[in-house]
Amino acid sequence: MSSTDEQVQETKEVKETEETVENASNNSSDDNFDLGEPHLLNDSPEEPSTTTSTLPTTTSDAAWNPRHNFTADSPYFKSFCDHEIQSLSLLTDAMREITTRTKTLCQTGALMGEATRRLASSCRLRWDEEQSREDGMTPEEIDQLVAARRKAVGGEMAELLEHLGKALDEVAFYQIAMLQSIESTLGMSFEAFAASELKTVSILKSDADEATEAAELQFGKYLNGKNNFSESFGEKAAGKTAAGERLGKAFKNWNLGRGGHDAATSNPGDSRIEKAMEASNLVSSLEQVRVLQGMAELRRFQLMKHLISIKHRRNFEVAENAISTLHEISNYHGRCKTAVDALSPSIKEIQERQNKLREEHASTIVPTWQGRETALRDAVHSIRIKATEASKAAAAIADGDAKEIERQLLKVDDIEEQVQLWNLPHALAATSRYQRDTMPGVKIEGWLYKKNTSLMALQAWQRRWFVMDNDAIYYFSADGDDRPYRRKGAYSSRVKVCDVVLCTVRELPVEGQGPRFCFQLVTPSEKPLTLQAPGPIDYKIWVDGIRSAMEHRLYHGDPNAPHLNQNLGRKPINSGNTRESSFSELPPTEVREVSDTSPEMETNPLGPPQNASPLVEKIMNLNPTCADCGMASPDWASLNLGILVCIECSGVHRSLGIHVSRVRSLKLDSISLAEGGVICLLGNDKVNPIWEEGLAAQTGWQKPTENADRKGREAWIKSKYQWKGFLQYEGCEGLTDEEKVEKYSKALYDAAKKCDLVAAAGSLARGGSPDWTNPDEGGRTPLHACALVPVPEGDEEWHAIEMAEFLLQNGGKL
Ligand SMILES: [Zn+2]
Predict the structure, then answer these.
(1) What is the C-alpha separation between 346 and 359, in angstroms, rounded?
(2) Domain residue spans in the chain?
(3) Most Cβ neighbours (<10 Å): which of 299, 361, 400, 741?
(4) Proportion of the chain above pLDDT 70, given as a percent
(5) Which residue range or ranges hold the Arf-GAP domain (predicted)?
(6) Ligand 1 centroid vs 644 CA: distance in angstroms?
(7) How far is residue 103 CA from its own chain's centroid?
């Protein structure tokens, strides 16, 4: 580093020396040819150094054992200088190469640092904000995207990547710091050193050469140039200064004097003066030659001194920079290691967790996947076997196989049941490990075929995902794509069909070969919307579900919308099909895993299992078997009959229509406290005696068992509830039908007044009308009657709410 200073010093010295030379020559001319001692002329001119006290003197035996001054002009010195200069030039090349490559490294290193930083940013799940701003994204949108990214990567993995990103960030920082430091040592000072040295040396060299040449030229000409010596030297000197001119003249005179020696002796007096003048001029001139020789020696010495000093400074320079670079490298690695080490506790933690999860994955999850897959394969396999059997049977029938012909079912319903057409989705879902929770508020959802009302429409029926929540029925607008959970594009909006409270379901009977499972949503303001369910099960779920939701809203209102009932009969503000632009994206649906032991899997393939409420538990404990077939653990309730039935019987109940039986699932539907209370007060044990009171009087009837087929159940349930075949009508002999209704309606009214649900059930079963008005009590209906029952004081039970609920379920009107 200090080389530059030295350089300056050196250059200064060189300049000073030059000035000295100049002064010396000036002085000599000013002194105007001081007469030197004549004996000097006799001294050997080859060794001028030996005669002056300022130069190192050689001893007298030097001639015999000469110790040569190295900087004296000699081939050795020249060769040394050439070698050193060549070596310096090689050094410069080497240094330049290092510098160039250092610069290349630092440039690519800067790129790498930037790349590392970008990688770090990606690992930390950052967003390229600059680009995003160019794309016109707001900071909120960027935040949302980042949050979505983090979620997609997963919390723990995002944490791990964050660690990695931080480490990379630090590495990039240290990397850049290291490269900057290396660039300032290897890149800058090396080059500066080598370049300036070479320049200085070349100046010194040319100075030394010039001085040597000048000295040699003068001296050589003095030695052997008697004729042209003075002229040429004089010319050369005259070219520079006036003093040089005088010097040249002195030589000339001296030569002339010597040349005309014989003639001069003729006049000894004159010649003595002239000779002395010439001699003194010669002395002066020779001193000038010696000055030049001395100067040349000085310059050569300076050159050599510099050349040798370069070697030392080269060593300092290289050592300093190389060691500092090594330090930087070592620092860089140390800092990287520290940065990574700091992370290692949390990394270790994540690693251990991951190892555990990996084991768990291999030991539990993968086998259950395999189990599920095997179950599905088995299911497909058994269906395939049945398909083969069916085609064989078909072939046999075509060949006239009487047995097969006999065995072949002929009714479509029976065939569908035989092949279990409608059960397949349930059967497949039953073994599933994964279930989906419905979105909050959703009561029913699923595919329905929507009949196109437009004549221009290409397709008569469009498959749409329908949803019913507490308030309304919607379907997702797909525009050609029926996948319901696409995040963008399709399903950008949902279309509201109608408010639950304003719509009626009209069941459409099958006419000839027309479509089955069709129903219409009838609203006050729009054309009826015709829908087709993909099977009887879905059909019932939708028809009953919509009806019950509507009734529920009518009777109970909605705690969230207390004024809704006031809208009755009024056209809703958002009438008909309203596109809700705010519904831009479906909230993500979480897949829920069900444990193998969960009983819900078997019983509720259709929907999300709900945790059994205490009320549901109580109802099920009170009614351990199906009211109609005796199957254990029935979980379907008939709200208007006040009984529990099994899933098989519930199907039959449903088929009778809601005026006979309103069926709800205890597990899939939500049962209100009042509805639950009705079943608690009634129940199979109290209701069956009413409906089966006259069974003993009938012949040929036997109650079905849990193994009964559908036909058996249907016959029994229809006879019992629809045709009322097993009821007893005591004390009705001779009464007309109107009189009977009057009698049991009055009985119902009385039961309502007492809030006696069992009595009310008996009266209703036998034809009592909940709309009957009592002329003796101001034309009140049973509903009015029970509503007037005062809340008793103390602990006495009060069932007015259950009574009202029961009447409403049986068609009572407010
Ligand atoms: Zn049953």
Answers:
(1) 20
(2) 12-56+69-347, 436-588, 607-809
(3) 299
(4) 74
(5) 613-734
(6) 9
(7) 36
